[in-house]
């Protein structure tokens, strides 16, 4: 399977999943949007983007090499951040996810990870106080 085909299939399946799952909610109209309106149309847009990758897949010869060890480590990192969130809060869980994901990368750079941690911390605190007042920060 070539790279463009893998990306195309991922985008089409993801977009279709979002659109289908949003049908459980009221879609509404553009004037009075329901809770399912945004995810439904974002899913359609993602499907359309995936379709363009699918058209491009005929010309791409780049092969995808599956590295299952990295995928398993990344999945473990995500599951670990969920567990950390349960006991510590959102900020520590997000930082845990940033650091464990960065450590998986073969070209780990501590300076870039520190910058990313600072930026994500600021965004997490800003999100907490602007959108999710009930989410525990720590």
What is the topological layout?
Elements: H1 3-22, H2 37-56, H3 68-88, H4 90-104, H5 110-130
Helix pairs in contact: 1-2, 3-4, 4-5
Overall pLDDT level? 82
Helical percentage = over 70%
Query: What is the makeup of the main sheet?
Result: none
The helix-strand sequence is HHHHH
Number of domains: 2
The counted number of beta strands is 0
Distance between the termini: 44 Å
Low-pLDDT sequence parts? none
Assembly classification:
single chain
List keywords for this structure.
5 helices, 138 residues, 70% helix, mainly alpha
Can you tell me about this structure?
It is a single chain. The chain has 138 residues and is mainly alpha-helical. It has two domains: 3-56; 68-130, no CATH class. It has helices at residues 3-22, 37-56, 68-88, 90-104, 110-130. α3 (68-88) packs antiparallel against α4. The chain is flat and about 45 Å long. It starts with a helix and ends in an 8-residue tail after the last helix. The mean pLDDT is 82.
Short description:
It contains 5 helices and no strands. The protein has 138 residues and is mostly helical.
């Amino acid at each position: 399977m070539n790279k463009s085909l893998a990306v195309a299939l991922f985008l089409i399946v993801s977009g279709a999943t979002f659109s289908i799952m949003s049908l459980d909610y009221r879609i509404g109209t553009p004037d009075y949007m329901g809770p399912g309106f945004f995810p439904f149309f974002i899913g359609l847009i993602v499907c359309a983007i995936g379709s363009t990758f699918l058209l491009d897949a005929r010309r791409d010869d780049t092969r995808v090499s599956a590295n299952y060890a990295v995928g398993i480590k990344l999945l473990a990192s995500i599951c670990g951040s969920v567990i950390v969130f349960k006991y510590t809060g959102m900020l520590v869980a997000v930082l845990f996810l940033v650091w464990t994901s960065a450590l998986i990368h073969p070209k780990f750079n501590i300076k870039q990870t520190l910058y990313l941690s600072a930026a994500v911390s600021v965004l997490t605190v800003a999100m907490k106080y602007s959108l999710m007042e009930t989410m525990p920060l720590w």
